[in-house]
Please model this.
Amino acid sequence: MPHSIEDRKRVSTRLRRIKGQVEALERAVEAGTECRLLLQQIAAMRGAAGGVMAEVLEIHLRETMGSAELQQKPSIKDDQMEDIMKILRAYLK
Model:
């Protein structure tokens, strides 16, 4: 769970955006919107969910990967974390 106020705010903002997308999708289904447009909205929601997952995962990794050895060399830690997050973001797309 995000612990800092900034992290919580970022995650909450993303979740509210996803909630709005879900509500819009529900309205579109009820209105009989054609499938291709529904699929486009679903793909957008899927991307947004992947984004929030990457955000929370990055927060979690940064909070838990604070070993003493890596803390002595923060530039190595930051570089390694950025490499891990690039891989995960690509996977979550």
User: Anything to note?
Assistant: Residues 35-64 form the longest helix (30 residues). The chain has four helices and no strands. The mean pLDDT is 85.
